[in-house]
Amino acid sequence: MTTQTAPAHAAARPAKSRAARRTPPRLRTVGLAGGAYLIAIFFLLPYLEMILTALRPHNEIRDRNYLPHHFAFSNFINIWDTGLGTNLRVSLEIAVGSTALVLLVAIPAAYYTARRNFRGKRLFLLLVLITQMFQPTAMIVGIYREFMQFNMIDSVWALVLVNAGFNMAFAVWILNAYFGAIPKEIEEAAIVDGCSRVGAMFRVIIPLAMPGIVTALIFTFIAAWNEFIVALTLTTSDATHPLTVKASSYIGQYSIDWQHLFAGSVIATIPVIILFALIEGKVVSGLTAGSVK
Fold first, then answer.
1. How far is the C-alpha of 81 from the C-alpha of 255, rounded, in Å?
2. For tag attachment on the chain, is the N or C end more exposed, with fewer CB atoms within 10 Å?
3. Do residues 280 and 215 share a domain?
4. Is residue 21 part of a domain?
5. Which domain does 151 fall in, by range?
6. Half-sphere exposure of residue 247: CA atoms within 13 angstroms, side-chain side
7. What is the DSSP letter of 117?
8. Per-residue burial over 75-93, b = 16 or more CB atoms within 10 Å of its CB, e = otherwise
9. Does residue 287 or residue 68 have the better pLDDT?
């Protein structure tokens, strides 16, 4: 009887694989990770300072220590007595209304330009891009006179229309790229199965383009939520001021209400952080849409 022995190199393979798994990360990987953490800390420090200032008592506002000796959580409770709840509701109405109006107009426009070759298509897309070059600040006088003629000063609807108009171009462009990346054969197969053109768009194309739609949604929402100049110009009463304008009211001529200013800023960032955290994955995939053909 003869016995066969396995080669020595075959027995050494598991040991080598285990040793490879135990190999510590390379110096370059450690350096990149450490640099990324330092950059993240650098950008998070202002938010930490904002939270700590919001929690400082009034008598510690000028102390040199980084951490307060006492935490005044009452700052986040007393601020609601200043009418912040109304301003928060107004900001939500403006952001949600502007986002809904942008998607209502941008989705059909982007779908049609991505699927149809019509005369003046390039000119239309060029005009859409040109509108992105104009900022509300440069046109604020004309915007004010126009809405004054329509008797829409101090109206939430005026802010909804302005924010929707200035964010429409971005939504059309990103959705046009995403609709163009979806193969036409998928839509044609749905039409062969009995769907109409509109039915194929709602049942097939829009679900496939949802990452791009979510990307347009989050950027439009953030832009409308953070807008300040137009809101300051077109609103005159405290009941129609969004959070951005309300926060500026804590800065007086002779004194600044630092606790309420920073507490209001913390509250204003919470809805955006929650919204972005919920749909962050689709935002990333939507931004890369159309980059590879």
1. 19
2. N
3. yes
4. no
5. 82-287
6. 21
7. -
8. bbeebeebebeebbebbeb
9. 68
